[in-house]
Design brief:
Layout lengths: L14 E3 H8 L3 H10 L6 E3 L2 E5 H11 L12
Antiparallel strand pairs: 1-3, 2-3
Protein name: AlpA family transcriptional regulator
Pfam family, one: HTH_17
InterPro entries: DNA-bd_dom_put_sf, HTH_17, SinI_DNA-bd, WH-like_DNA-bd_sf
């Protein structure tokens, strides 16, 4: 997965903490840890002892999780 470090406006891409990501997705923090262990969640970035997530990476990951409409095959399958 390609990681983006700059936003279209030329500034830095905002980062989310594990807690912020879990709150945004409406899942427990433990689920984020489990996804990381299983290689299923969005790509994370280590900042010292903390794991952060580029907002752009989360958006890209969410787009890949989108299900097809009922009765229609998923794109790329």
């Amino acid at each position: 997965m390609e990681t983006h470090t700059a936003s279209p406006a030329g500034g830095l891409d905002p980062l989310l903490s594990l807690e912020e990501l879990a709150e945004y997705l409406g899942v427990p923090v433990r689920t984020i840890y489990d996804w990381r262990t299983d290689g299923k969640g969005p790509c994370g970035v280590r900042v010292g002892k903390h794991v952060k997530f580029f907002v752009s990476d989360v958006r890209e990951w969410l787009a890949r999780q989108r299900e097809s409409a009922p009765g229609r095959p998923a794109e790329g399958r």
